[in-house]
TrEMBL record:
Keyword match Cell membrane: no
Name of the molecule in the record: Phosphate regulon transcriptional regulatory protein PhoB
The entry's keywords: DNA-binding, Phosphoprotein, Two-component regulatory system
Native source organism of the sequence: Pseudoteredinibacter isoporae
Function recorded in the entry: This protein is a positive regulator for the phosphate regulon. Transcription of this operon is positively regulated by PhoB and PhoR when phosphate is limited.
GO cellular-component term (any): protein-DNA complex
Source species taxonomy: Bacteria, Pseudomonadati, Pseudomonadota, Gammaproteobacteria, Cellvibrionales
Amino acid sequence: MENKKILIVEDQQDIADLVRLHLGDLGAEVTHAVDGHEGMRMACAMDWDLMILDIQLPGPSGLEICRAVRRNEAFVPILLLTSRSSELDRVLGLDIGADDYITKPFSVMELIARIKAVFRRVEALEPKEQQVTESIDLGRLTINDELHQVRLGEELVDLTAREFDLLRHFAAQPGRVFRRSELLDSVWGYGHDGYEHTVNSHINRLRAKIEKDPNNPEIIVTVWGVGYKLDAQALQAS
């Protein structure tokens, strides 16, 4: 965690101080925002390696900050803190782009383990120096790993980091049907069976960007009762 720039948005000073102390001991540079207004401003104005957002805040909530960050198309790992026992809050957080969550009260060891796991997933997606730059070409669809760029025909497609990873996962094995649980494990890395509809919402957003008619998709198609697949034949059409 050496030199990682971490933003924590938490209105409970004792929790923020505890997190700041332990992450600082691991070499991270931790900045604390005390409410949602300050958190929103700092989250959107600076580059961070990780954001830790409390859901319940004075001013904009952690969910609102998360949504704003994802709307800006900037990829930064986001971990949510919640004191609520409601599953709805956790599911909503994952749906709008959070990478993980932890429920209060939590142990510092668990929090650090979750943060390290998030960083491991991010590092696993980064191109290694010894790897040859890979590009996937499927007719009208081209995915460039090095540029993190997607073209459909002559048009650049503006995708979030998660949407890019999801599309690339499909394109790496065109025609293969993926169950929602497989996509969740491979693309999100959560291993939580209860959040498979998170996949559905991301599929819908991806379709809105690459399909001529998102209500009648031809590229990312549903295999009823099983999951989803990328139909490479649809990409050969002019």
